[in-house]
Amino acid sequence: MNQLASSVRVDVKTAYIETQSSPDEDKYLFSYTITIHNLGNEDITLKSRHWCITDAEGRKSEVHGSGVVGETPTIKPNSSYEYTSGTVLETPLGVMEGSYTMTDEQGQEFKAIISAFRLSIPGLLH
Question: Considering the entire predicted model, what is its pTM?
Fold first, then answer.
């Protein structure tokens, strides 16, 4: 991991959206709120995202795209950027992980890794 990547911390909070889910149809909607912290000394800009989403049956889907929620935010030193998005799984349990492609003030690209996090309906023991 290069020095720039270590200057980024990603925190995740997840929630099961019961009102928009249909377990009878194998449709489980989860939201995730991401907070990206810039712990470094210069502005960084989020350019793109890559997600790998795996459900409890081992089905994988990948998502690639520019920015997040229609934005390519620039995050100042010692500040953070937060957004909420969502995904639908066919099972009540799954895992997401991925990375953001970021650039520094000189335009140098680096990856900020998003560690695996769990998506599950409340009370599910696995």
Answer: 0.91
